[in-house]
Design a protein that fits this description.
The chain has 194 residues and is mainly alpha-helical. It folds into two domains: 132 residues, no CATH class; 53 residues, no CATH class. The protein contains four helices and three strands; from the N terminus they run ααβββαα. It has a three-stranded antiparallel β-sheet. β1 and β2 form a beta hairpin. α1 crosses α2. The longest helix is centred in the N-terminal third of the chain and has 86 residues. 5% of the residues are buried. About 5% of the residues have low confidence.
């Protein structure tokens, strides 16, 4: 019985020792965790700041790239319009370009097209029609010859008077067409007599 009591005491004290050792280890682990936690938090915070800075920089680069692409496309569009106007024989390319640039845009498939009342039209077709409707952008034709021609001042072929003050941007299409016809008629008479 004495042996049993001593074994129970040893077992009891062994269990107590184990539980004390376990508690000491748990306490040590808890203290270590608490000691390293601020370092982890600081490291995580620093990592978050680096990631946010990188994301900001990537967004800035993406925006800069988008702007550069838009500038490049605008320059290509401008060059294509100007070269086509030159090909059509327009002498006042800058003036004609300013007149048509708002109507021309890049379609989804990459082609340059213009908006018209009939819908989308290709660049060449639109500019050819524009130049045909606005011959004042073409160089003056020199007919040759010498001498002068009598020009009826200010009266159209229809017998209507044209006032210079009424020729202005924004005038009605009918008035603009009458003024163009009269300018062409007078220019033809002047140039035809030379």
């Amino acid at each position: 019985m004495a042996e049993e009591k001593s074994q129970v005491k040893e077992t009891g004290s062994a269990d107590e020792r184990r539980s004390m050792i376990r508690e000491a280890i748990e306490e040590f682990v808890r203290l270590q965790r608490e000691a390293t936690e601020p370092a982890y938090k600081a490291e995580l915070l620093e990592e978050r700041k680096r990631r946010e800075a990188l994301e900001r920089r990537l967004n800035e680069l993406a925006e800069e790239n988008r702007k550069q692409r838009e500038l490049r496309e605008a320059a290509e569009r401008s060059a294509a319009i100007r070269s086509e106007l030159q090909r059509l024989g327009v002498s006042k390319v800058d003036l004609a370009y300013r007149a048509v640039r708002e109507d021309i845009y890049r379609a989804e498939d990459g082609r340059l097209v213009a908006r018209t009342e009939q819908g989308e039209v290709g660049l060449r077709e639109y500019l050819a029609r524009f130049v045909q409707e606005n011959p004042e952008f073409l160089p003056a034709r020199v007919g040759g010859g010498s001498g002068t021609v009598e020009v009826r001042g200010g009266v159209t072929s229809r017998g209507e008077a044209i006032e210079l003050e009424k020729i202005r941007p924004g005038m009605s299409p009918e008035e603009a067409e009458r003024a163009r016809e009269e300018i062409v008629r007078i220019a033809s008479q002047l140039l035809g007599s030379r």
